[in-house]
Amino acid sequence: MSLQQTLGQPPVRAQVVAACVELVDAQVKKHGFMIKGAYATVKAIKKGFVADVINALLGEWLAELQPFYDQWVATDKTVAFAAFVVARKSEVAAALLAVTDRRAAKTSHGVAKSAYSKLRPSALQHVTEAVPELAAIVQRFMP
Q1: Span 70-90, pLDDT tens digits
Q2: If you ran DSSP here, which 8-state letter would residue 80 be given?
Q3: Which residues contact 100 (CB under 8 A, 6 or more apart)?
């Protein structure tokens, strides 16, 4: 079973996207003016932009999470998947950021690209901080 098959297909996909939007909103609220301002700018580009981006990237993010899932399945599973991921949060964050880095390099949205480039130097720290909540989301929607 792949994460794409279980979390990336309707109707679960929409629920995962909505949960991830809530996660991003909550993470942004924890940070300073620069991040909040950049996020507000990106959200102002288009209503639903954040959900659209998460939806567009979800398949690639799930593909990056798949090796971690496969490693977890290969263990005796005495540890919950979320805890397994949290124990590897730096690796998981780097894998997820590889997706956004590739996409940001190709985007035609100049404002979003500019905002991303300003925030990228601190992104690893911020994504690493969000991994526990992301892992909980993934686990919640796993069969």
Answers
A1: 999 999 778 999 999 999 999
A2: -
A3: 57, 116, 123
Query: How would DSSP label each residue in 24-80?
Result: HHHHHHTS-HHHHHHHHHHHHHSTTHHHHHHHHHHHHHHHHHHHHHHHHHHS---S-
Entry pTM: 0.86
Assigned token pair, 12? 């679960």
Token pair 């780097």 is at which residue?
94
Token readout for 77 is: 């599973």
CA–CA dist 135, 86 (Å, integer): 7
Q: How far apart are CA 14 and CA 79, in angstroms?
A: 27
**Residue whose token pair is 């297909």:** 9
Using pLDDT thresholds of 50, 70 and 90, give the confidence band for residue 59.
Answer: very high
State yes or no: pLDDT of 115 exceeds 80. Answer: no
